[in-house]
Amino acid sequence: MLGEKITARAHTNIALVKYWGKENEQLIIPANSSLSLTLDEFYTDTSVQFAESLNSDEITLNGNSVTDDKITKFMDIIRKKTNINTFARIESTNHVPTSAGLASSASAYAALAAAGSKAAGLNLSEKDLSRLARRGSGSATRSIFGGFAAWNKGTDDESSYGYSIEDPVKMDINMIAIILDNQPKKISSRKGMKISIETSPYYQSWIQQTTADFQTIKDAIKENDFTTLGKTAELNAMRMHSLTLSSNPSYLYINADSLEVINMVKELRENGVECYYTMDAGPNVKIICQNDKISEITDKLSDKFSSNQIKVSGPGEGIKYL
Ligand code: DP6
């Protein structure tokens, strides 16, 4: 029924095989398939309620009233699908422990797709929800699902969707996020990946390599092979970051603190503590490790970083209505 307030929760995800470039910017069709782990600790709760009395969408983010063209455009997609001309009240809260830096468009648009479509009277399958979430932000396609999830590249709106690879996750796997900077990024992922696909001379090699990485990680999940998964995820992340360096103009998300964490991971590994690093479109580093290594890694990190910069998370669940 239109007018009912619907609330949905979506968790953020960290890609093990990164998405970096669009074949179709308007529909957000990626240039390669990607694969991620949904995280338990970081999530977004969003409620949507359509109301005849409104003259525009009323958006509240973390308690503050905002105007956001991307959100309004996303709501227009839902309105068009359902022939609704009514605006909505949208309230969204990011649950990212204290100093944030990990608030992501992935959980935001997955939660908005779920709450918005249901509030508009749609009852979408998870696959169709993932296609809708994709229109807000590519990485949101995977946040509909818990555990290991993938985004099938596809070639059009119909064939570009997310799916579950394994949920609940059987592998012993965690991510330790080190929050080095919680400022908005200088070059958004949207802008950065556009520069890379248009100007990096290595872009075609990236597509070939990342397609192979996708298969390697998929097989590693099936075989419960943490080592292959970790090694490949680390390589894939650095392959993505080398696209930023080889773009024109070149840009860089890795800063001095990120490098320090990367070196710590290498040192830990040399001392027999198995762990791997990954990074997205910002300086924060995420360390991939198993349960019995968490305390050694966080001990080492606390030589340099405060405890509220270090967040440990296990696999999280898929979209749910509250
Ligand atoms: C590095 O999903 O934020 O995190 O589709 O333009 O909204 P848009 O981009 P976004 O890009 C995510 C990039 C990444 C890798 C990944 O999550 O796969």
TrEMBL record:
Keywords: ATP-binding, Lipid biosynthesis, Lipid metabolism, Lyase, Nucleotide-binding. It is an enzyme of class 4 (lyase). The keyword Cytoplasm does not apply. It comes from the Bacteria. Residues 177-309 form the Mvd1 C-terminal domain. GO terms for molecular function: diphosphomevalonate decarboxylase activity. Residues 10-161 form the Diphosphomevalonate decarboxylase-like N-terminal domain. Pfam families: MDD_C, MVD-like_N. The keyword Ion transport does not apply. Its EC number is 4.1.1.33. NCBIfam families: mevDPdecarb. PANTHER family: DIPHOSPHOMEVALONATE DECARBOXYLASE (PTHR10977:SF3). Belongs to the diphosphomevalonate decarboxylase family. This is diphosphomevalonate decarboxylase. It comes from Apilactobacillus nanyangensis.
